[in-house]
What we know:
Elements: E1 11-17, E2 22-26, H1 30-36, E3 43-48, E4 55-57, E5 62-65, H2 70-74, E6 83-89, H3 92-96, H4 100-112, E7 128-133, E8 138-143, H5 147-164, E9 166-168, E10 174-176, H6 184-187, H7 191-194, E11 198-201, E12 206-207, E13 211-218, H8 225-235, E14 242-247, E15 252-257
Antiparallel strand pairs: 1-2, 1-11, 2-8, 3-5, 3-6, 4-5, 6-7, 7-8, 9-10, 11-13, 12-13, 13-14, 14-15
Protein name: Oxalate:formate antiporter
Organism: Neobacillus piezotolerans
Amino acid sequence: MKKHSRDLRDLIYVHLNQQAQYVMSxxxxxxxxxxxxxxFANHLLLLKHQFDDGEFNRHTRLEYVPRDKIxxxxxxxxxxxxxxxxxDFDEEEGLNELNGQDLAELxxxxxxxxHLKPPFYNQLGNRFVYLAHDDGWFNKTYYRNLLDFFTxxxxxxxxxxxxxxxxKTLFGIRKKRSYPIVNKELLLPLTxxxxxxxxxxxxxxxxxxxxxEIPIWIVGDFANMDDMAEAYGRSVRKPCHAKLVFDKKTKxxxxxxx
Length: 258
């Protein structure tokens, strides 16, 4: 059964393949990814998409999104595209330096969502390869530097928590609560858990008077997100493996591992 990514918008699944430098995820959408890298300076070469305001590169015969249109793309319903795949690049001149083998590898990436060789090209200077189907439901993202993944996650967690914990003001107006970014160094001890596959459950966050506790479960390695969702459903009945805790008084995040 096909699911929509918004069914799990308050759940983050992460499986880290450190050796191949990619992360499989569910629950993180392109708009959130782009927000985490708001100062991102590269353009995006579109491998699979339905964006109708891109530029055309004659050498690759592919469209690309100039850096000044990335914000517009982030506002699109890219979940509705089906396949949404791209690789970033420094300058259009780099696209014109790609040879036939490079282009074949990139097209294979977009079509099969597997790499033939490490998908980082000197001609492009790319930091990422972003491969999604029903964006936010199944995402596979390659990182030239895996610290970029932790940077992204440290931004997305408080963003999602703020979206979930909406408060009412004195006049009944709904107001999103703002939480500070998680220090990415705090997330690094979760690396061994991420290699097994974890769910960071914003939906199960326990809000107390002085703190918010976000449970984290090891659920396993999944490429099928329906199976992942079932594993999560079984895991929530058991004690969590770790907790990410926000202290409302000190405005600090802390990690507790069971």
